[in-house]
Design a protein that fits this description.
InterPro entries: Biofilm_reg_signaling, CHASE4, EAL_dom, EAL_sf, GGDEF_dom, Nucleotide_cyclase, Rev_trsase/Diguanyl_cyclase. Keywords: Membrane, Transmembrane, Transmembrane helix. It comes from Mesorhizobium vachelliae. This is EAL domain-containing protein. The protein is about 50% helix and about 20% strand. By secondary structure, the protein is an alpha/beta fold. The strands form 5 sheets. It has an 8-stranded mixed β-barrel, surrounded by 4 helices. It is elongated, with a radius of gyration of 36 Å.
């Protein structure tokens, strides 16, 4: 009993000590576990906040990049200043909603007046801008201030991008606001400082946008938390430029540490004798959690420099690789070739088959490009349907052309898009480095010029940049500058008038105004040449208005039955063209019935509401619409049948062959009979022989024009011809 009594306290003491030590050890392990879990959770939370903040900045940058894709564009400047609502909807507003998800778009003129508005994919009245103006105005004024100062330069020495952005509250919701000027993408369009139109883009920060940000970092439960709701620790404030909090981005906090402790709870219950094993297990789990976090970071890094649709390098990685490649090539004495490639009429695929088909086409194109080039080369997607290829160690231009031809041949093979077989072509511009002085931006510019030439010369082909392309641009700029001076009254531009005769070849029915430019240095420039430059450089509206005003003013002072003036299809696409014509008629006092406007067959194929409305207004006022060069294009017979025109002009290419070609005579006869069946007038132009005249009159043509009858004349020479008096005019009209 004594032994049992002596051993009992010792046993209890040892037991108590062991239990105490075990409890202490367990407490240390548990305490350390919870401490480590808390630290891991806090560290993870900070990383999550950093990811969300970076993701928000990436989203703002994405809005800017998406906006820049349409704001730095010659067509944007031209069509916005022309007030082309349909074009702005298709390319600057509704398209931005459909393709990128921008919720609101406003276009402001140089005086900050709204000229176009879009909300949620629908063009709306510009008065909608007034509701948002108080919130948008500070950012707009900030950008105007930037534009009024000399351009700043970035780290690369290039002009900094003109953009003003902020987070703003609209309709009680936070939104990303980005304001950019509409700038020309080339020297083909000139724009005076201070005359810039503005493109305002708004993307609401809703759960969809937040989900896209969170999806990059594998965060769950991401949502917008308004100010009225309580905010947990897993939240990042949305702060505007004044420091005002507009709301929060919240998410379900990832707790790797707590999750680990919960998983280990059963093991900890029996861990008095297995503390060491539990510790090893804990360290192993921590290492796994760290590896998972590293994987998440690696994925975020990958997404920052790769295109999500194709997996190809994006523009940022492409530009970095191009600069590095040129640096290494200059040291090694090798050459680099840059290929710019984009799909021809990609927008048509999207419009007809839908955006999913367009995405499939982009992915399949990327795969074909990647499998066609070498592993050492780089193919990148720059955005939309634009791709770029960097070719290393290219011996000469012929090698780059061979690769370009292989790429084009691969892309000519049929694509399978949503169970449809589609054939697509592409255009490629090629530029090669030329020694150690080659600059990446200069190589990009040259490749872009070569791509433009490829598209201009027929698409589905490649062009290698040549020095004369720069020379051509310089010549175009010089002609553009001198044309502007001529239109400002510096002289040189004038109109000649070629009369149109009745079938007898003596009575004058009217005259066609033909523009001429006798340049003091270059001599007489072909009208087709400088008119094409005017269309390309945005001067066609001004040139066309001058010609219309000059011709109407001349006709109003004469007894001519009518005067015909050629107009460009681009003028008809101007929403204010009809009103411009009416204004000229009022100023000159010419009756609308004495004006004929000649345009080409391409107008009939556009199915453009703006063009159709303009033609309808003009015809209702009495102005007559003439289809010039008929038979050389692709006229719509249904359009002709609806009496959308008043006269057809048979092209001189058919008239020239009447003497010798039976098929030409058959075509001319068919065209005349078509005009008579449609009950519209018909004029044959380019009549140069008596045989041609006799054949045409025999076929039923009653209006003739050409050098046989009269060449284009100076105004005084035309008035001196017999048949322009009022009495002769009455006889000519009766015979016609």
């Amino acid at each position: 009993m004594s032994a049992r009594r002596n051993s009992s306290p010792l046993t209890r003491q040892v037991t108590l000590t062991v239990l105490t030590l075990a409890a202490f050890a367990l407490a240390i392990v548990v305490g350390f576990g919870f401490y480590a879990a808390g630290k891991a959770d806090n560290s993870s939370l900070e990383r999550q906040k950093m990811f969300v903040a970076d993701g928000l900045q990436d989203q703002i940058a994405a809005v800017e990049r998406e906006q820049e894709s349409v704001s730095v564009w010659d067509d944007s400047v031209v069509n916005a200043k022309a007030g082309n609502q349909a074009w702005m909807a298709d390319n600057l507003s509704v398209w931005m909603y459909t393709y990128y998800g921008h919720n609101r778009i406003y276009i402001l003129d140089s005086a900050n007046r709204p000229i176009h508005a879009m909300r949620e994919g629908k063009a709306v009245d510009t008065s909608a801008y007034g509701e948002d103006r108080p919130v948008l105005l500070p950012t707009i004024e900030k950008l105007r201030g930037m534009l009024s100062r000399p351009p700043e330069t970035g780290m690369s020495g290039q002009p900094a991008k003109a953009v003003a952005e902020d987070l703003v509250p609209l309709d009680g919701k936070p939104a990303i606001l980005s304001v950019m000027p509409l700038l020309p993408s080339s020297d083909r369009v000139a724009q005076a400082p201070g005359s810039e139109y503005l493109h305002i883009s708004v993307e609401f920060i809703n759960n969809a946008v937040i989900g896209k940000i969170a999806g990059k970092y594998l965060l769950e439960g991401a949502r917008l938390v308004p100010l009225s709701e309580p905010v947990g620790p897993a939240a990042v404030p949305l702060v505007d430029s004044r420091g005002v909090i507009l709301g929060y981005i919240g998410w379900d906090q990832l707790r790797p540490g707590l999750a680990l402790v919960r998983k280990m709870a059963p093991a900890l219950a029996i861990a008095l004798l297995l503390a060491g094993g539990v510790l090893v297990f804990l360290l192993r789990r921590l290492r796994r959690a760290s590896a998972a976090l590293q994987t998440s970071q690696d994925q975020a890094q990958y997404l920052a420099f790769h295109d999500t649709l194709t997996g190809l390098p994006n523009r940022a990685l492409f530009e970095d690789r191009l600069r590095r490649t040129l640096l290494f090539a200059s040291k090694d004495g090798t050459r680099v070739a840059l290929l710019y490639l984009d799909l021809d009429r990609f927008k048509h695929i999207n419009d007809t088959l839908g955006h999913p088909a367009g995405d499939q086409l982009v992915r399949q194109t990327a795969a074909r490009l990647r499998h066609t080039i070498r592993e050492v080369d780089t193919v990148a997607r720059l955005g939309g349907d634009e791709f770029a290829v960097i070719l290393l160690d290219v011996p000469d231009a012929g090698s780059a052309e061979d690769i370009a031809e292989r790429l084009l041949a691969k892309l000519r093979e049929p694509f399978r898009l949503i169970d449809d077989q589609v054939f697509v072509s592409a255009s490629v511009g090629i530029a090669l480095s030329s020694g150690s002085e080659t600059d990446a931006d200069d190589l990009l510019r040259k490749a872009d010029i070569a791509l433009y030439e490829a598209k201009k010369n027929g698409r589905g082909r490649y062009e290698v940049f040549a020095g004369d392309m720069d020379d051509l641009l310089l010549r175009k700029r010089r002609v553009e500058s001198e044309l502007r001076k001529a239109l400002d009254g510096d002289g040189g531009i004038k109109l000649a008038y070629q009369p149109v005769f009745a079938a007898d070849g003596r009575c004058i029915l009217g005259a066609e105004a033909l523009i001429r430019w006798g340049h003091e240095v270059h001599g007489a420039l072909p009208a087709a040449q400088f008119i094409a430059i005017a269309e390309e450089r945005g001067l066609i509206g001004e040139l066309g208005k001058w010609a219309l005003s000059e011709a109407c003013s001349f006709a109003a002072r004469t007894e001519l039955p009518w005067i015909a003036v050629n107009i460009s299809p681009m003028q008809l696409r101007d929403i204010g063209f009809a009103e411009q014509v009416f204004a000229v008629l009022r100023e000159t006092g010419l009756d609308p019935s004495r004006l004929q406007l000649e345009t080409t067959e391409s107008v009939l194929l556009e199915h453009n509401d703006t063009t159709g409305t303009a033609i309808d207004k003009l015809r209702k006022s009495g102005v007559r619409i003439v289809l010039d060069d008929f038979g050389t294009g692709y006229s719509s017979l249904s359009y002709l049948r609806r009496q959308a025109i008043d006269k057809l002009k048979i092209d001189r290419s058919f008239v020239r062959l009447l003497d010798e070609d039976e098929s030409a005579r058959a075509i001319a006869k068919t065209l005349i009979e078509l005009a008579l069946a449609l009950k519209v007038e018909v004029t044959a132009e380019g009549v140069e022989t008596d045989t041609q005249k006799a054949l045409l009159v025999g076929m039923g043509c009653r209006q003739l024009q050409g050098y046989l009858l009269s060449p284009p004349l100076e105004p005084g020479e035309l008035l001196a011809l017999p048949g322009v008096s009022s009495a002769d005019r009455e006889r000519a009209v009766a015979r016609a």
